Amino acid sequence: MSNKNRMRKNTSFKINILAFTACFLWSTGFAGVKIGLNYMPPLLFAGIRFMLAGLMLLPFCGNLKDYFKNVTKNLKQIILLGFFQTFCLYSLFFVGMTYISGALGAIVVGSSPLIAAVTSHLLLKDDKLNLKKLFFIIFGISGIVLISITRQPLSISGTNEIFGIVLLLCAIASSAIGNVIVSKNKTQLKSFVLTSSQMFSGGLMIFILSIPIEKFEITNLQFEFFAMLLWLCLVSASGFAIWFYLLQIKSVKVSELNIWKFMLPVLGAIISWMIIPDERPELFIIIGMIIVGSSILLFNIISRKEK
Questions:
Q1: CA 283 distance to own-chain centroid
Q2: What is the CB-side half-sphere exposure of residue 289 using CA atoms within 13 A?
Q3: In a domain, 222, yes or no
Q4: 29 or 197, higher pLDDT
Q5: What range does the domain containing 236 cover?
């Protein structure tokens, strides 16, 4: 094997490991969100979470003077990214999930690689969707459907559910646009600076929105709330820092990276088996996991051959 091929293989392995790590971190956050919502309404909780996550990354952003200089220089990109990647994504997601079941939500969120691939196909010249890629994305979605409906009965019983689905689809589309914004500006900002600034700006937007809507309805805060809030801030800060770093690599395409998001419900199911006493592996869930794993593997093989 030539040095060039060996370097390419090592880079691909590193990208896959980091993408899996980001998805693993995000998958651990679902339980924390449920606990946090027992103490604080969703928009207020999300706003505080992301503002703190943005501030948490400041020590990793280097000199503060250079940080604010870079933020000011790239303010338009940061505001746009904060709007799509944090404000729209999480405000629509939190509100949408109040209208639908967890299983239906998991299926809709499971379609995010397809929406990301279509969005990048339309907005990026070098990230086009073809029939082979489309087949493996749909194959992966079928695995998500199998996992979700096995864990919880699926039902769509009225306009509320349809409204919730629409909100979640808008949230996913917003995230896909955010990914494209990062991919189009690969070298302008370091990953930590971009993540910190967009999270704080997006979190501030959600916080401001929560003031007239939720009116600071806060229950007596306990230690578990602060523990979960700290964990969620760490998950958000580290997960998005890794994700934006990957999107800024020249060889990485939005559609190829987002295929790893199929791992979120898979990892969520595994974590539930480990933590929740009544949760246990079932045949159809395992089959769904095999389908998801196969779709990711085959998608990456096809992408590598195309390159």
A1: 27
A2: 14
A3: yes
A4: 197
A5: 13-306
DSSP per-residue string spanning 69-111: HHHHHTHHHHHHHIIIIIIIHHHHHHHHHTTS-HHHHHHHHHT
CA distance 81 to 200: 11
Is the pLDDT higher at 184 or at 51? 51
CA 182, distance to chain mean position in Å, is 14
Residue 217 lies in a domain: yes
Q: Which two tokens stand for residue 264?
A: 């979120």
The span from the CA of 23 to the CA of 268, in Å, is 10
Q: What is the pLDDT of residue 261?
A: 86
Is residue 65 included in any domain, yes or no?
yes
Q: Is 25 part of any domain? A: yes
**3-state DSSP percent of the chain in helix, strand and coil, to 5:** 80, 0, 20
Task: Provide DSSP, 101-146.
Answer: -HHHHHHHHHTHHHHHHHHHHHH-TT----HHHHHHHHHHHHHHHH
Q: Say which residue the tokens 């959600």 belong to.
A: 206
End-to-end, the C-alpha distance of the chain in Å comes to 17
pLDDT at 62 over 90: no
With a pLDDT cut of 70, the percent of the chain lying above it is 86
Q: Give the total number of structural domains in the chain.
A: 1
Question: Do the beta carbons of residue 245 and residue 191 sit within 8 Å?
Answer: yes
